[in-house]
Amino acid sequence: MTSGAAPAASDDEHAAAHPLAARGCADVAALDALVVGCRACPRLVAWRETVGRERRAAYRDEEYWARPVPGFGDPHARVLVVGLAPAAHGANRTGRMFTGDRSGDVLVAALHRAGLASQPTTRSADDGLRLTGARMTAPVRCAPPANAPTPDERRRCAPYLAREVELVDPAVAVVLGAFGWAALLATLADLGWVLPRPRPAFAHGAEVVLAGPGGRRLTLLGCYHVSQQNTFTGRLTPAMLDAVLARARVLAGAASPAEGAAGG
Ligand code: SF4
């Protein structure tokens, strides 16, 4: 016998729908608050929490964040830095994007040299770092095993980046690596931006100007990822990173740090 009532949505269905609420976020603070409550990807939820329980020996006395990591920095940044995903013992530990690992050290030192960060180091969420005119984010907000999100996980997380791009409305996106490049292009296509065909390929130093809805414009700058794999081998040097950020500053209108709104 059936009751005739519609079945209640399962916890899994509620979790899977969580990212879609990003569209309704009125500002970056609301978006950041939404992100941290997400459990839409079962594999990544399990991984981020397992890493947080087991911990690396050097951090065994620390409480890991072990949740999704929102973007960090100026909510109206002219320069948006787009990475890949939080590192297991970096942002997944500290709860702040590009914080607590070597990749963050390299990136934030360069942002400081470019006049976009208040200090050259990024150690913990309460270390006082502030970005002015810049914001750091990623297309996937949970630490993935082997730094490798699946295509489904990237698609599930996409509404957060999409809404962040709409709300921040940057002039320039410095995209660190091919994964972020493809993810940002897919997100822009979803938002109705006009993309060249074939889609522009990632390369270090690549520069692509895109047109979006309402007359928006965004320049993508390709940059090798600040991973240890690239920085230890010299594939990405501090000078190369400085050159990309200098170009970003020029394209962003070269506003002085004092002219941007501070954020964190
Ligand atoms: S990766 Fe994104 S969509 Fe998946 S659980 Fe984390 S925040 Fe949610």
From TrEMBL:
CDD domains: UDG-F5_TTUDGB_like. One of its GO terms (molecular function) is metal ion binding. Keywords: 4Fe-4S, DNA damage, DNA repair, Hydrolase, Iron, Iron-sulfur, Metal-binding. It comes from the Bacteria. Residues 70-245 form the Uracil-DNA glycosylase-like domain. Signal peptide: none annotated. Belongs to the uracil-DNA glycosylase (UDG) superfamily. Type 5 (UDGb) family. This is Type-5 uracil-DNA glycosylase. It comes from Cellulomonas marina. The lineage of its organism: Bacteria, Bacillati, Actinomycetota, Actinomycetes, Micrococcales.
